[in-house]
């Protein structure tokens, strides 16, 4: 049985970012800081446009109260990813790992992907399938979960 999410995605994001900061750095990674900032900027744009699409479509943006969802968004950036908000947070963690110059800190990125998939995305998908049925299943077949 899939349970309703209880931990908001920003809390998972901050937790993973803090874990990344605390990890040892035995394998330094050097990358041009401009690339790091470009990744952060691109991720921020993805996040902005995904929230904008929710706003435009009057969709429920609260990740814990899935039952309040009246619509699911399929336009704009949601034509390419079913979860661009989580994709943007993942991109920010990638930029953070590069900023920390630590290969080990990428463990935080993988933790985020795992936890957000298990604790947030799968319950969202379950709820959306129950609420919207065939239209959501058709969307799932057409658009990938991440990218």
Automatic annotation (TrEMBL):
Organism expressing this protein natively: Haemophilus parainfluenzae
GO BP, sorted A to Z: methylation
Transmembrane regions listed in the UniProt entry: 6-23, 35-55, 93-116
PANTHER family with a match to the protein in the record: PROTEIN-S ISOPRENYLCYSTEINE O-METHYLTRANSFERASE, SLR1182 PROTEIN
PROSITE patterns: PROKAR_LIPOPROTEIN
The keyword Transmembrane is annotated on this UniProt entry: yes
Gene Ontology cellular-component annotations: endomembrane system
Keyword Transferase belongs to the record: yes
Pfam family, one: PEMT
Membrane topology: Multi-pass membrane protein
Record keywords, A-Z: Membrane, Methyltransferase, Transferase, Transmembrane, Transmembrane helix
Upper taxonomic lineage: Bacteria, Pseudomonadati, Pseudomonadota, Gammaproteobacteria, Pasteurellales
Localization: Endomembrane system
GO molecular-function terms, A-Z: methyltransferase activity
UniProt protein name: Protein-S-isoprenylcysteine methyltransferase
